[in-house]
Amino acid sequence: MKIHEFKAFPNPLRVRMFLAEKGINGIPFEQINVPEGEHREPAYLAKNPYGAVPTLELDDGACISETIAICRYFEELQPEPALMGETPREKADIEMWQRRVEQTLNDTVATYFHHGTPGLGSLESYQNKEWGEQNLKRYHDAMQRLDDHLEGRTFMCGETFSIADITLFSGLYLGGILEIEIPDRLTNLNRWRKVVSSRPSASA
User: CATH no. for residue 13?
Assistant: First the structure.
């Protein structure tokens, strides 16, 4: 078993944090040089036809891609500590917030990266600066909504750390790389980031 990734990207960070929180060690990580286009080479496309990272390659050669699918695999393999919920209500609540964060924060900042900045340079086949700037605004709007949600909550889904928090941390991580700061007025989100940043998994 091994994981193909480009460590500097946010989705590989999600998997690394998930494994660290689970206490799963010893899985090798093979780096795919995305800026040089290695993810578009036939050898990698044979493992993941979409050319995205990360990809989990199992011992029998089967490959699982998509970040949440990879995390789900390890959640089923090692249920404790539960990062995707234990009861039906918890599982639904965590999935709801994980998806909301993914769609409104992570996807918008990623779109800004690809369209509103040089992105991956010559690998970017199409860029729309206006669309990039619109998504930067959507990213800021998402931070405001999440700050509102975190009022009175330690983590995204109450007092228990979950995959929803990991997804949020990775979205803010990319924002930080792009020098998009969390406004000081968003005290709940800033407090949350400080708490999560102190977890050992944050440096996985």
Answer: 3.40.30.10
Total domains present in the chain: 2
Check if the beta carbon of residue 10 is closer than 8 Å to that of residue 105. no
Farthest-apart Cα atoms in the chain, separation = 50
| Distance from C-alpha of 83 to C-alpha of 19, rounded to nearest angstrom | 10
CA distance 195 to 188: 11
Helices (H), the chain: 10-22, 42-45, 67-77, 88-101, 107-116, 129-149, 163-177, 187-197
Which CATH number is 161's domain given?
1.20.1050.10
Distance CA 15, CA 173 (A): 14
Angle between helices 129-149 and 88-101 (to 10 degrees): 140
Q: What global pTM score does this model have? A: 0.97
Render the burial of 30-57: b for 16+ CB within 10 Å, e for the rest. Answer: eebebeeebbeeeebeebbeebbbbbbb
* Closest C-alpha among 150, 162, 133 to residue 188: 150
Last residue of some domain: 56, 77, 98? 77
167: confidence class by pLDDT, cuts 50, 70, 90: very high
Closest to 131 measured CA to CA, from 111, 109, 117, 106: 111
Tell me the C-alpha distance between 129 and 114, whole Å.
9
